[in-house]
Amino acid sequence: MGRPFNALITNVFMSIVSRVIAALAIWMFLASPSLTQEESELSGSLQLTGNVFLEDTRIGATGTPQYDHQLFGAESWLDLSYRIKGFDIGVRFDLFENSNLLNPNDSYSAQGIGRWYVTKTIGSLALSAGYLYDQIGSGIIFRAYEERPLLIDNALYGLSTKYDFNENWSIKGLIGKQKNLFGSYDSGIKAIQVEGYLTIGKNGLSSMVPGIGLVNRTWSDDQVNQLINTVRLYTPQDSIGLFYNSWAFTVYNTLSLGPASLYTEAAFKQNDVYFDPESQRTLYSGGTTLGRFRNDPGSVFYGSLSVGTRGLGITLEYKRTEDFDFRADPFAALNRGLINYLPPMARLNTFRLKGRYTPSTQSISERAIEMEIRYGLSKKWKLVQYFSDIRTLQGDLLYREFDNEITFRRSSALQVIFGIQAQQYNQSIFEGKAGVPVVETVVPYIEWFSRISRSKSIRVEFQYMSSQQDFGGWMFGLLEYSIAPKWSFALSDMYNISPEKTDDLHYPRIDVVFSRRANRYSFSYVKQVEGVICAGGICRLEPAFSGFKLSLSSIF
Amino acid sequence: MTGLTSCDENQPIYTLARPEPGEKNVLVEEFSGARCPNCPQGTEALEELRSIYGSNLIIMTVHAGDFAFPYEDSKFDFATQHGDDLITLLGNPIGYPSAVVDRRKPEGANVFQQFSSKWSSSIVDALNEPLIVDLDQSIEFDPDTRELSVQISLLPLEDIDEPLNLCIALLEDNIVDPQADRAAPTGVVKDYLHKNVLRTYLTPVDGDEIATSFDAFKGMLRNYKFTLPLEDGWWKARDCKVVSFISRGSTSGGDLRVLQCVESEIGL
User: Fold this and answer.
1) Is the pLDDT of residue A431 over 90?
2) Cβ of B66 under 8 Å from any chain A Cβ?
3) CA distances in angstroms from A15 to A1, A18, A130, listed in the order given
4) In terms of DSSP H, where are the helices of chain B?
5) ∠ at Cα A449 (A447, A453), nearest 5°?
6) Contact between A534 and B107 using a beta-carbon 8 Å cutoff
7) Helix, strand, or coil here: A454?
8) What gap in Å lies between CA A92 and CA A117, rounded to an integer?
9) Which helix (H) or strand (E) element contains residue A293?
10) pLDDT in tens, A248-295
11) Which of A99, A214, B108, B214 gives 20 to 30 Å between its CA and that of A64?
């Protein structure tokens, strides 16, 4: 009788507690109209995407549950936030129904409260609890963030406190666990950050924003036991020491001197046990295999210099990464469980063919330099030169890109962008395709924009990719007609003009977008080429897509 | 009266001898494909684990999913409908190499598929599970008719009040055919030695339901027959083996846990 009775008492107690909390929440919402408008504010947003899957075996859009029998998949995020008397309260409802975001080859369905938070500032002290997004420096040792298209939600489920010593210096502490879908990883994460602001000289035009940060991650007993069960089977030469606690430290600074700004950061990590899929492991049989746990210390050095003067802008970035895979779970792979964020050293290209081969950031061995120079040749002509070179620490080429882009802007009614890009892309490393050659591409491109009338405009894009590797050469064309501010229609086609792998297939796309006030609706018919993506020794097929895409975003 | 009472005797007391439970074995369903460049690394890692755990570890290599299609010079296509059914049952891997250990979802995970870094600890967890069903199989093969007879004996070691399914698969070793391998200079090993290849199932991939409840120590027998196709470079009886396992029914809230598995060579 004792246990059921206790359970009954517990249930009754929890029921009362939850009703009290609900009543308080309702009271806060209902009571707000009696307060002044300045004291309270309720706002929100909705993002909804849906995919209708239409099987097309010719392009490989097949073999997933969505094409097989589910036919429809959707994701949605509804954010509500409420501000009253210095409190910020928020809640987010997440829904995934036959979604292909978590695994492009499979289906994921779940729904529930994806986030809640409460923040309050009391004088110099700011307190936050719940699912928190934050980062230290550029995020190299800690970044809690969200990337919905990849279903990354690395919020820290815990508590944050920030204290301002004065208007220039502050200290911040964070503690919690990293979110994992609707649960959390077992490990505990603690972080502390001190950041300041200093002016240099009397005129106040120069300044420094220095900071330091420290992150501690503690494995759970279960995680350590699982690690023991794995590494105890290693041969003596591969055996490693294990640690419950790992430490990451960073020091960073932004120096602004007139038109120049220099960001530098140095980060170090020690006592971390991480899986290196490229590391060779010796077997008792005498053979070898790739992939083993390591505990070597890691480091990242990152610098970004930007200079802007009249008619000339320069951005120069450098990064050196060695053994800096930092996760909330030692067995997490790909983009799951990452505590930190390593800045990418290749820009995201918006032109379809220019962006077809994009390198993923390497966390074990990478040395990269990236530069962009922007010239204002005249009022109408602008030139952008871009260069990126990414190698392993041993000097092997991973990625290189040159791009020269010219913009001619006669007026707001006519603009033409054209240029040529050249790439070298180590498909063997980025996609794990042993034996394939480095993909070399040359992409000339042009975009022409013309405003026909006050509300109507036309945009035309044309790109051609010359390549003898992978899928071969491509051609892409787009025609977009907009009736501002409500309607936009786009028709495009990507054509495998000199195929190396498949038939000479077309990948057409039609988009209709309607916007009204803060609501945006889009409807698309899409055929999208497949691509194998591998990172860290794990291959992942981003499958071809065939079907309709629907989306709605609303802010209220 | 005394004489009558003297006929009573103190009966000897004894306890029934109960069969000693065997050791828990673990089934690893490795998902692979001829075009999967990382899969040979995973296979090496599993072979290493088998050298440690011996016959307690049973490996089934399922060619299914994104990389399971042959090269132009391949002699064999290892992909099967059963492999596709297993993908449907156990989920499509997010990447390769990937495997499912004893059809258990790792704690905190919502999928069966696991990357290679996790296999070792999952196997240890599964090996440490208490054995609640003993399983044995006897194999007979007629080389003339190529008929294979499999008799399964099942012995619950405790009362079980849930449906259990019996699965029987046929695997084949020593098939030489091209295989992608990122460690090879050309990316492909033309004469790769494929082992533990799933050829067919004698039951559905989620098994035949045996019963919905079981009494402790009340044994059951089940018989299956299968005729091996004629040898055509493969289907070599001497390289074939039978893997049988008892798992929870798919109606058990998505828990398909394998309770015991056994492996026997047809052996000629």
Assistant:
1) no
2) yes
3) 21, 5, 21
4) 2-6, 39-53, 81-90, 116-127
5) 165
6) no
7) coil
8) 9
9) strand A288-294
10) 999 999 999 988 999 999 999 999 999 998 899 988 877 888 899 999
11) B108
- Minimum-distance CB partner of B45 among A289, A435, A538: A289
More confident residue, B203 or A412: B203
Contacts of A225 in chain B (CB under 8 A): 121
- Nearest Cβ partner for B117 among A288, A333, A434: A333
Check if the beta carbon of residue A140 is closer than 8 Å to that of residue A265: yes
Interface test with B, best of A108, A533, A541, A542 (most B CBs within 10 A): A541
d(CA B66, CA B92): 9
Q: Which of residues 125-164 of B touch A (CB under 8 A)?
A: 125
Distance from CA of B25 to the nearest CA of A (A): 17
Q: Is the pLDDT of residue B17 over 70?
A: no
Q: Which residues of chain B neighbour A181 with C-beta distances below 8 Å? A: 110
Nearest 5 degrees, angle CA B187-CA B188-CA B192? 140
| Cβ pair A388, A369 in contact under 8 A | yes
Residues of A in contact with B51 (CB under 8 A): 283-285
Closest CA to B110 of A110, A94, A334: A110
Does the beta-carbon distance from A289 to B48 stay under 8 Å? Answer: yes
> What does pTM read for this prediction?
0.84
Cβ-Cβ contacts under 8 Å, B184 against chain A: 434-435
Indicate the residue of A275, A293, A540 with minimum beta-carbon distance to B94.
A540
Chain B residues whose beta carbon lies within 8 Å of the beta carbon of residue A238:
none
- Tally Cβ neighbours within 10 Å of residue B217: 14
Query: Residue type for B255, please?
Result: D
Based on the number of CB atoms within 10 Å of its own CB, is B128 exposed (0-12), middle (13-18) or buried (19 or more)? exposed
Mean pLDDT estimate for chain A: 89
Q: What is the pLDDT of residue A4?
A: 42
Residue type, A522: S
CA–CA separation, A87 and A109 (whole Å): 33
Let me know: does A15 contact A7? Beta carbons within 8 Å: no
CA quadruple A480, A483, A486, A489: dihedral, nearest 10: -20
CA separation, residue B220 to residues A136, A439, B75, B136, B137 (Å): 63, 60, 41, 11, 12
Question: If residue A8 lies in a helix (H) or strand (E), which one and from where to where?
Answer: helix A2-31
Give A151 to chain B, closest Cα distance, Å: 13
Contact assignment for B44 to A105 by CB distance below 8 Å:
no
Give me the residue label for tokens 């055929």.
A527
Chain A residue with Cα closest to B179? A434
- The CA distance from A51 to A490, in Å, is 18
Residue count of chain B, please give it.
268
Stretch A401-412: mean pLDDT: 95
Question: What amino acid is encoded at B51 in this protein?
Answer: S
Q: What is the pLDDT of residues B122-168, one digit of tens each?
A: 999 999 999 999 999 999 999 999 999 999 999 999 999 999 999 99
Closest-CA distance, B213 to chain A, in angstroms, reads 27
pLDDT tens column, A443-466: 999 999 999 999 999 999 999 999
Sorting pLDDT into bands at 50, 70 and 90, what band is A531?
A: low
Are A435 and B185 in contact (CB < 8 Å)? yes
Nearest to B37 among A183, A433, A543 (CB): A433
Task: Indicate whether B213 pLDDT > 50.
Answer: yes
Bond before A485 cis per omega within 30 degrees: yes
Q: What is the pLDDT of residues A287-314, one digit of tens each?
A: 888 899 999 999 999 999 999 988 899 9
